[in-house]
Write a structure and sequence with these properties.
Length: 533
């Protein structure tokens, strides 16, 4: 996936979400019953929506920042924290290398003398560790990649393994073509073998390189998974206590779960309990963020995936993380919960029972547009549920905030809130409809009758039709529908009449039906008299 720099650091954590996938049909079947009350104007996918159209701008980040952890060249940086470490001290550790040394380095790395080989590998590693203009292609063209791959198999020389692995990791930070050079020369299987090394820093280096390769594209990700990374990587994460290894392992695991087409869920499902445990046991923000993103990728695409998340008993912690001060954590946590809410009513209820609504309402007031938009999407899927779930939204004071968003927020956020309010009108009981009217729902809906987006205008009209239909029993002493009267008083009737000239046939037909059902010609005098009183 192409990543886009969107500005400041917190905005850059936001990445577009994959749409619905092979389990789309399961999702459609699940909501058909609920959509009978919304009668065929919109499909179940459109009401309890997966975020396909205009995918939410979540976690758009510079490619190299998200998927490419460049290894610095401090030789002491990756010394392991216990006896299972490799002594990386060297007489050459302070030497500075340049591309002028390339012929010497090529000759050294191809030598039969271990000291000369080490000199050559160290030189290549330092050249590749340059933060800008790293000579990746120059080194590939020097045809040393096969030699580096061979050196990572030298179990009797762990210091050579480590330096060679470090070089290959930095080469894997290059373009897709440069990274593919490692794949076609057989590097993946050799790095998988390193995951079982006796040395922690070799294991960690292998995790890092495989994470770089998997983060390149879905094809590379699948090749890494098929080569057998999952079990040894999870074993490392289950046993290590070292923060750096947990951090790199969580990052690599996130890369293994992301991408389009989506990863084979059953190959990665075993990671869910491990990811959940890491979230519970760690406070490092990047670790928690990567694990939450991995769960969000794994929970996306169908309700058959959701039980695996629920069985991990992670919901209360995810709800708590919604209030985390870092958006890098709150956003992916919200995405996981939002994916679960697209499931069955029972699955949705489990999220609500975990206390979702209060923090969800707070997120609607976030200074970050992307998280307000995402929160609106989640709320729209709750309000498309049953009356008890809608009541949770009402009791949590969320409807008032939805109304405010529609009135005041930017269009992308407003759009999600309109869906939420329209769905609430569709799902709501008469008492719930009245509760929404008390916080200005009718006036807010009417204010949107002039929006230029025909698709969203149709959603507005659906919501208005439901509000009017479900309040037909609320009449004045003169027999006038009080909600219809409020529509007239706030200018909604004038806007409806203008919409009879709309070029969209569906809009025209919907408007005519509303006018005939609730503002018949025979009532015009009555409305005028009521407005004068």
């Amino acid at each position: 996936d192409q990543m886009v720099d969107q500005g400041n650091e917190e905005d850059n954590i936001l990445q577009s979400k994959p749409g619905a996938h092979d389990a789309e049909e399961i999702q459609k079947e699940k909501t058909e019953e609920r959509m009978k009350k919304y009668l065929g104007n919109f499909t179940s996918d459109e009401i309890k929506r997966r975020q396909i159209d205009n995918s939410v701008d979540l976690r758009k980040k510079k490619r190299e920042e998200l998927f490419r952890k460049k290894r610095g060249y401090d030789p002491n940086e990756m010394k392991a924290e216990n006896a299972a470490s490799i002594d990386m001290s060297s007489a050459y550790s302070g030497k500075v290398f340049s591309l002028q040394d390339l012929p010497t380095l090529v000759q050294s790395i191809n030598s039969n003398d271990d000291q000369q080989i080490y000199f050559g590998v160290l030189g290549f590693r330092k050249l590749l560790a340059t933060n800008e203009n790293s000579p990746i292609q120059t080194i590939i063209d020097a045809n040393v990649v096969p030699r580096l791959i061979d050196l990572i198999t030298r179990k009797e020389k762990p210091h050579l393994q480590f330096e060679a692995a470090w070089c290959l990791t930095n080469i894997a930070t290059g373009t897709e073509e440069q990274t593919y050079c490692l794949i076609e020369k057989g590097a993946i299987s050799k790095f998988i073998d390193l995951l079982s090394s006796n040395y922690d820093n070799l294991k960690d280096q292998a995790v890092w390189c495989l994470g770089n390769i998997a983060g390149d594209n879905a094809k590379s990700r699948n090749l890494v998974i098929e080569a057998g990374i999952v079990d040894p990587l999870l074993a490392i994460l289950e046993t290590t206590k070292k923060p750096v290894m947990i951090k790199n392992g969580a990052w690599a695991l996130s890369n293994l779960c992301r991408g389009r087409p989506p990863v084979n869920f059953m190959k990665m499902a075993k990671a869910i309990p491990v990811l959940s445990r890491i979230i519970r046991e760690n406070t490092d923000r990047s670790i928690i963020s990567d694990c939450c993103w991995a769960l969000s990728y794994l929970s996306d695409g169908g309700e058959y995936k959701i039980p695996f998340i629920l069985q991990a008993n992670i919901l209360p912690i995810l709800v708590e993380l919604l209030q985390h001060q870092s958006m890098k954590i709150a956003i992916p946590a919200l995405r996981v919960l939002g994916n679960i809410i697209t499931g069955t009513d029972e699955q949705t209820q489990q999220v609500l029972d975990a206390g979702l609504c209060p923090p969800l309402g707070s997120l609607l007031e976030s200074p970050k547009k992307a998280i307000r938009k995402e929160a609106g999407w989640v709320i729209s899927n709750i309000t498309a549920g049953n009356v008890n779930q809608l009541q949770s939204v009402i009791d949590g004071g969320v409807i008032e905030k939805i109304v405010k968003v529609i009135n005041d927020d930017e269009y992308e956020v407003k759009r999600e809130a309109i869906w939420a309010l329209s769905n609430a009108a569709s799902s709501g009981s008469p008492p719930q409809i009245q509760a929404m009217l008390q916080v200005g729902a009718i006036e807010t809906i009417c204010n949107q009758l002039e929006m230029p987006d025909a698709r969203m205008l149709a959603v507005v009209l659906e919501g208005l039709a439901h509000f009017l239909q479900k309040t037909e029993g609320l009449v004045s002493p003169q027999g006038v529908n009080l909600v219809a009267l409020r529509v007239d008083q706030c200018g909604g009737l004038d806007k409806l009449e203008k919409l009879q000239n709309h070029g969209n046939v569906y809009i025209y037909n919907k408007v005519v039906k509303i006018l005939e059902a609730h503002f018949g010609a025979e009532e015009e005098v009555t409305f005028g008299e009521a407005n004068q009183n």
